[in-house]
Amino acid sequence: MLDLSVLNKEQREAVETLEGPLLILAGAGSGKTRVLTYRIANLIENGVYPGNILAITFTNKAAQEMKERIIQIVGDEARNIWISTFHSACVRILRQDIEKIGYNKDFVIYDTQDQEKIIKECLSELNIDEKAMPPKDVLSKIGSLKDDLIDAETYYSRYGMDFKTRNLANIYKMYQRKLKKSNALDFDDIIMLTVKLFKENEDVLNYYRRKFRYILVDEYQDTNRAQYEFVNILAKEHRNLCVVGDDDQCIYSWRHADIRNILEFEKDFPDVKVIKLEQNYRCTKKILDAANYVIQNNENRKHKRLWTQNELGENVRFYKAENGEDEALFIVKEIKRLVQEGYSLSDFAVLYRTNAMSRILEEAFVTSSVPYRVVGGLKFYDRKEIRDILAYLRVINNPLDNISLERIINVPRRGIGQATIDKVKEYANSRDISLYSALLEIDRIDGITKRAANAIEKFISQMNYFIVSKDRMTVSSLISEILDTTGYIKELLEDNTKESQDRIENLNEFKSAAVEFEEQNEDKSLAAFLERIALVSDQDQIENIDAVTLMTLHTAKGLEFNIVFIAAMEEGIFPHFSAKDDEDELEEERRLCYVGITRAKKKLYLTCAQQRMMYGRTMFNNVSSFIEEIPEHLIDDISPKRMSFNRVYNYDDYRAPSKTISTVNKINTTPVIQKPNLNKSANYDVGMLVKHKIFGVGKVVAVKEIAADKMITVEFDKAGVKNLLASTAPLEKI
Ligand code: ATP
Ligand code: MG
C-alpha cells in the first residue's frame, strides 16, 4: 500500500486526484516533484497500466531518479512508464513513425557546431555575407521559429516579403533541405516534427492518444509553444493532464519558454482543479524569507507566499571581496572550514550567472586541492577526439550524414586533401546525391589523383565493413574496432604528448560510457546509443561523487544542496547587463535569483567583488540590487574590514599545506596579489604555445598591455578562448 502519510493535506489531495485537468501551482521546495512521483505511484496502485502514463521532467537525470523512486514504491512494473524529457519522448515517437513525414528512421541529431556548419554553407551558397547575417543569430532565429511551430514553408509564404526576412526565409528553407538530405534533425526539429507528425497522421495521433491516457509534466512554467502543443494535442480528448510548476521559477524565456503556458492553464481547461502548495520543506526560515523578499519585487506573478516549519536557521552571509580571486579563495576557505565541521563536499554548490565565471573559481579549487566538478561549460562530448569518434559512429549509423562524413574523411590523415573533398562535394551536389554515394563512385569523378582515389577506396571499404558489422557488434567493440582499424589511436600514440595521452584517456572513458550504456539499456543499438548522447543536458552530467558542484544558476533548477554560494552578485553580472533597461528581463533575472536562493537547505552565502577583470578590463561593479532587496536583519556582512589599501593579505590560509610566501604589491592604490610559482616576467608572444594548469594546451592569439600587467588571450584546444592575466594565470610556455 502506498504510504501517503509522508505528504501534507494539499499534497495528498493532488496525489489522490486521478482524473481530469489538474494544475499544481506552487513555490520552490514545496514538494511539487515529490507530488508528481507519488501521483504516478498512486495511479498505478489504482489499476492504471504503467504503459499508459507519460511523465515529462526537465532533465534525463530527473527522469531517471523519478523512475527509480516509483519502482521503489510500486515495484518493477513501473518500468513501462514513459518518464523522460520532452526531447527524449519525441525522439522515441519519431523513431517509430518519422518515415510518414519523409525522413528515415536512422536520423541523427545535429548539435550547435554541426548546425553552424550547415548555416555557413547556406550563406555561402546564397551569397549572403556572414557579417550581415551572423550564423549564430540566424540559428537562434530559426530556433525560435521552430519553437513557435513555424516551419520553413510557412515562414516563407507568410513573411518572405521584405529583403531581410526574405533572406532569412531562404536560408531557413535551404537549411531544412540540407538537414533532410543528411537525414538529420536539429534539436528544435525534434518537437516541431513530432507535432507535425501528429497533425498530419491521424492514426499515429490516435495511437498515442490512446496510449498516453495520463500525462504529467514537471516544471511546466518552462515549456515553450511547441511543447505546449505536444502536450495539449495528446491530452485534448481524455483531459487527464496534470501539470506542476512555479511561475516564479520561469527562467528559460530566452529559450522561448512562455510563462503564459502556466498562467493561462485555467483558460485552456476551465474546469481545471488548482491546488496550491505553500509549505516549503527545503529551506530554513531565514533562507526562505530572503527568497520571498526578493521575488515580491516582481509584478508579473501570481501572488503566493511560502512558509516553512523548518528551523529558523542562520542569517544569509554576505561577503564582499577585494577582487575576483579573493572572492574565490574566500569560498574555498569557507568550504574547507565547514568540511572540518563535518559537512561533506557534495553538500556544497557554487552557483554563478554565466559559464565564464567558473574559471576564476576553478583556479582557487585547484590551487587549494579541494575536489570539485564543473557541470556544463565545456562538455565532454565537445572534445575533439570525442566528436571524431562520434562522427564515425554517426556515419556508420546513417551514411547520409554529410557533415559527420566530412569531419572524418581525412581524420586520421589518410591523404585525402581539401581539393579532393571539394571535387567530391561538387560532384555530389550536381547529382543531388549524398557525399557517401559520391565517394562510392570515385572513379567517375574528374580530376581526382590516383593517390587520393586509392585512399578513398580504402576508407570506403573500411566504412562499409563497419556498416555491415554494426548490427552484430556491440557499440563498445565497434568503437575499439574503429579506433584500431583506422589508425586513430596509432596516430595519437605516435604523437606521444601529454595532450595525446589525454585524448586517449578520454576515448577510453567514452568506451566505458558505451559499456555502461550496454549494461543499462534494453535497446543496445548504435542508434539508441547516439540518441542518448545527443540528448544529454548539463544536469545529466552530474555524477555521484564527493566533490563541490560548480554550475550556472540555470543548471541548478530543481536541485537542492545543504550549502549554497552564489558568486559574483554584482550589478551588470547578476542581474545581467542585458536586463538593464528591460523590465521583463529584469524580472526574469530576479526569478533566477529566487531559484538560486531556494536551492539552499541550510546555509546561503552571497558573494561579490569590489573589482574584477572582465572582458580584459578591470571593472568596479556595484553590489547586486538583489542583495539590497533582502532586509538587513536577514543578512550578516562578513566582508573583511578594509583598514587601508596597504593592508597585508595573508593567503597562506587559503592554500594547501605548502608553506609558500605571499607578497602584496601596491599599484595605483589597487592591490595586486602575486601568487607564488608564477612567471610574471614571462614574455608571451602571439602564436606561442602555452600550457595552463586547468585549461591545458593552447595558443596565444593576442597580447595586450594593461596597467602594470598583460592580458593574454589564449585559444585553448579544449577550453576555447580565454583572457588571462600574465601575472596570475597558472601558465607556462611550452
Ligand atoms: P523545486 O521548485 O525546486 O523544483 P519542488 O517543489 O519540486 O522544488 P521537491 O524537490 O519535491 O520540491 O521537494 C523539496 C524537498 O522537500 C525535498 O527534499 C523533498 O523530499 C522534501 N519534501 C517535500 N514534501 C515533503 C513532506 N510532505 N514532508 C517532508 N519532506 C518533504
Ligand atoms: Mg521540482
Overall structural class, as computed from helix and strand content, comes to alpha/beta
> What's the helical proportion of residues?
40-55%
Overall spatial form: globular
| Total strand segments | 25
Q: What is the CATH superfamily classification of the largest domain?
A: P-loop containing nucleotide triphosphate hydrolases
Oligomer: single chain
Low-pLDDT regions: 643-681
Total count of helical runs of at least 4 residues: 27
* Percentage of residues in strands: 15-25%
Give a list of the ligands.
adenosine-5'-triphosphate, magnesium ion
Please report the first level of CATH classification, the CATH class of the largest domain: Alpha Beta
- Named CATH topology of the largest domain: Rossmann fold
Polypeptide structure, described:
The chain contains 27 helices and 25 strands. It has 734 residues and is α/β, with parallel strands linked by helices. The protein folds into 5 domains: 9-98 and 192-279, 3-Layer(aba) Sandwich (Rossmann fold); 109-182, Arc Repressor Mutant, subunit A, CATH 1.10.10; 316-377 and 541-637, P-loop containing nucleotide triphosphate hydrolases (Rossmann fold), CATH 3.40.50; 380-521, Orthogonal Bundle (PCRA, domain 4), CATH 1.10.486; 688-733. Strands 11, 12, 13, 14, 15, 16, 17 and 18 form an 8-stranded mixed β-sheet that branches. A 6-stranded parallel β-sheet has the order 3-2-6-7-1-8, with helices on both faces. Strand 9, helix 14 (285-295) and strand 10 form a beta-alpha-beta unit. The radius of gyration is 27 Å and the shape is globular. The structure holds adenosine-5'-triphosphate (ATP) and magnesium ion. Residues 32-33, 558 line the site of magnesium ion. The site of adenosine-5'-triphosphate has 18 residues, from helix 2.
